[in-house]
Design a protein that fits this description.
The protein is α+β, with helices and mostly antiparallel strands. It is 55% helix and 21% strand.
C-alpha cells in the first residue's frame, strides 16, 4: 500500500512539477516562435528592400534613360536604348547570387522575370495583383507583402515603383523569396530547441536567450553591411565572424558578399581588362582631387593610347586586339599598384592617376612604364606582336577635373601628331 501511495505521490509531484514546466516551455516556445518568425519577416523585408533598391540603382547606372515598351513580333521593354528583354543575364545573376526571384512590370503586366513554370518557361504576360497595382502603381508607394500568390506558389515580396526621369511611374520591380524557403529555415532553427525544451525547460530558456542574442547580432551585422552597400559603398566589409559561420546565416552573409562583388564588377570594373572602368576612374580622380585640396599634396594625370591599335585588329583580328588590351592592362595595373590608379578610359585609351607625385617624379615613373610596354612581346597565332603607347601627362589641378583631363588629352594629341611612341608633358 505504501508503495502504491508513494507511486501516486511521485506521479503527482512529477505532474505538478513537470507539467507547469512543459506548459511554460510550450508558452516560451510559442512566444519565441512568434518573435523569431516576426524577426525573420522583418529581416526578409529589409533584405528584399535592399536588393530591390540596389537593382533600381543598378538599372539607372547601367542603362541611362526612360522605360518604354515597344511591341512588334514580341513585347520588348527598353531602358533608354537598352533592350532589357533581350538580356536576362543581370537578373539571372542576381537570382543565382541571392536566391531571390525578380520581375519587371511595365504598368501592371509582367514583361521580364526569373520565375518559370513547370516546363521551365518564364512566366510573362500575366498581371500583378489588384491590391499591388493600386498601392504601388497608382499611389507610387513601395510595398512589402508577406504572402503573394504567383503561379501557385506563395512569396514574401517587395514591390517598388519604376519611375522615368520626369517622375512618372511606368511600372514596378518585384523581388521575392519563396515563403516555403523562409518557413523551412524557421522550422530548421526551432526543431532543436523544441527537443531540448522537452528534456529541460530551463536549459532551453537559457539556450534560447543566448542563441537569439547571437543570432540577432549576426543579422544586425548583415543588415548593416547591406545598408552600406545599398547606400553605394561597394567597398564595405562584412565581419569574418559572419562569413565563417557554417549555417544559413553564414550562407546569407556569403550571398550578400557575392552580391556586393557582382555589383562592384558590373558598376566599377571594366569587364575585359579588369581595370577600373571610366565611371570608376572619374570617381577616383575626384577623390584624389579632394585629398589634394585638403592636404595640399600634388598629383598628376596622364592619358595613354595604344599606337596603331586599329592595325593590330585589322591584321590579327579582334581576339588578338583583346589579348593586347588585357596584357597592357596587366602591365599598367602592376606598375600603378602602389603609386596610383589605372583605368580603362575607352577603347584603347587608359587613364593614369599618379598620387602624391610632382610632375618630374610622375614622368620618371611613366618613362619606366613606357620601357616595360616597349619590351613586352605577345604571341598570337604563332606570331610575335609588339605595341607601343603614347602618353600625355600634366600636373593635377585640385579645382577642375575637366581641366586635368583636357590638358592630358591635348598632350596625348601632340604626341600622336609628333609620331607616337613618346610622352608629352
Amino acid at each position: 500500500m505504501k508503495a502504491k501511495n508513494k507511486g501516486k505521490i511521485s506521479y503527482a509531484l512529477q505532474t505538478i512539477t513537470i507539467l507547469p514546466l512543459l506548459l511554460f516551455g510550450l508558452i516560451i516556445l510559442g512566444v519565441g516562435t512568434h518573435l523569431f518568425t516576426k524577426s525573420m519577416n522583418s529581416e526578409v523585408e529589409i533584405e528584399l528592400n535592399n536588393v530591390s533598391s540596389n537593382l533600381v540603382t543598378m538599372f539607372d547606372a547601367l542603362y541611362p534613360g526612360d522605360y518604354r515598351l515597344e511591341s512588334g513580333t514580341a513585347i520588348r521593354l527598353y531602358k533608354g536604348e537598352h533592350d532589357l528583354a533581350a538580356d536576362y543575364d543581370l537578373i539571372d545573376c542576381i537570382k543565382e547570387d541571392t536566391g531571390m526571384e525578380i520581375t519587371l512590370f511595365y504598368q501592371d503586366t509582367r514583361v521580364l522575370t526569373t520565375i518559370t513554370d513547370e516546363n521551365g518557361q518564364r512566366i510573362i504576360g500575366s498581371a500583378a495583383p489588384s491590391e499591388v497595382t493600386k498601392e504601388v502603381l497608382e499611389n507610387g508607394n513601395p510595398k512589402f507583402y508577406k504572402k503573394t500568390l504567383i503561379h501557385g506558389s506563395n512569396y514574401f515580396s517587395y514591390y517598388i515603383p519604376l519611375r522615368n526621369q520626369d517622375g512618372t511611374v511606368m511600372g514596378m520591380l518585384f523581388v521575392g523569396k519563396p515563403t516555403a524557403e523562409v518557413d523551412a529555415f524557421v522550422r530548421r532553427s526551432l526543431y532543436p530547441l523544441l527537443l531540448v525544451d522537452i528534456v529541460l525547460v530551463i536549459l532551453v530558456s537559457l539556450l534560447t536567450f543566448f542563441y537569439t542574442k547571437r543570432f540577432a547580432a549576426v543579422l544586425l551585422q548583415i543588415h548593416g553591411f547591406l545598408k552600406n552597400v545599398s547606400a553605394g559603398n561597394l567597398n564595405a566589409e562584412l565581419s569574418p565572424s559572419v562569413l565563417n559561420r557554417r549555417d544559413e546565416l553564414g550562407e546569407i552573409g556569403q550571398s550578400a558578399l557575392t552580391m556586393q562583388r557582382s555589383l562592384y564588377t558590373l558598376i566599377e570594373q571594366d569587364a575585359l581588362t579588369g581595370l577600373c572602368n571610366r565611371r570608376s576612374g572619374d570617381k577616383k580622380l575626384r577623390q584624389v582631387m579632394e585629398a589634394s585640396a585638403a592636404a595640399g599634396t600634388p598629383f598628376c594625370v596622364a592619358i595613354g593610347d595604344i599606337d596603331f591599335f586599329k592595325k593590330v585588329n585589322d591584321t590579327y583580328g579582334h581576339d588578338c586586339g583583346d589579348m593586347v588590351l588585357q596584357n597592357i592592362a596587366a602591365i599598367l595595373r602592376r606598375h600603378m599598384q602602389s603609386i596610383g590608379t589605372a583605368a580603362r578610359w575607352g577603347g584603347e585609351e587608359f587613364l593614369l592617376i599618379f598620387e602624391n607625385r610632382k610632375l618630374d617624379a610622375a614622368l620618371e615613373s611613366l618613362n619606366q612604364l613606357m620601357e616595360n610596354i616597349r619590351a613586352a612581346e605577345y604571341c598570337y597565332g604563332g606570331q610575335a606582336v609588339k605595341v607601343t603607347m603614347t602618353f600625355g601627362i600634366a600636373p593635377g589641378d585640385a579645382r577642375d577635373a575637366g581641366k586635368n583631363l583636357r590638358i592630358a588629352d591635348e598632350k596625348l594629341y601632340e604626341g600622336k601628331t609628333a609620331g607616337r611612341n613618346r610622352i608629352v608633358s
